[in-house]
Amino acid sequence: xxxxxxxxxxxxxxxxxxxxxxxxxxxxxxxxxxxxxxxxxxxxxxxxxxxxxxxxxxxxxxxxxxxxxxxxxxxxxxxxxxxxxxxxxxxxxxxxxxxxxxxxxxxxxxxxxxxxxxxxxxxxxxxxxxxxxxxxxxxxxxxxxxxxxxxxxxxxxxxxxxxxxxxxxxxxxxxxxxxxxxxxxxxxxx
Length: 190
Ligand code: ADP
What we know:
The chain is α/β, with parallel strands linked by helices. It is built from nine helices and five strands, in the order βαβαααβαβαααβα. The longest helix is centred in the middle third of the chain and has 15 residues.
């Protein structure tokens, strides 16, 4: 059983690497961004609530995110573990995740942080914006807001896991396969 937090700024490649990791290890992908976009597409109440935050590049309030993750963990049966992608994004979310996993007799194996310089992030997000249909990918001001929110509110989450000796940093610039190989060697050492 592996429970992995895949961490990094917007555009770091978390989604790309998650897809490969779930195939290799049989893990359940829990991307809060994907879950919100699904709700948005289905026009649920939760989707409507999240929309105004997401489209501006702000964080959805903690209690909303935490409730959604709790539901997903509780309804998932027979898994080899989870890849948390885009969650936790605040220290309060990280504390809540520890509690939730504890209730299910699980714990975080480790956090893997993908490091990518800001200029490359902006290029990648804009490139993705050409095909992603994501409002938050298509405008410089919104991209800058997301990076600022990451630096101010999300980066402290790395310190949280570092304090538990669970943080490994990886260079997120390079070939997808090479980065994947580095991530798998970290996971295999858990
Ligand atoms: P990216 O990593 O490219 O920013 P995500 O798909 O992870 O994209 O997130 C898109 C948006 O969804 C965020 O900007 C935020 O508004 C919302 N969101 C996703 N996860 C969280 C979270 N854990 N806490 C608060 N808001 C979140």
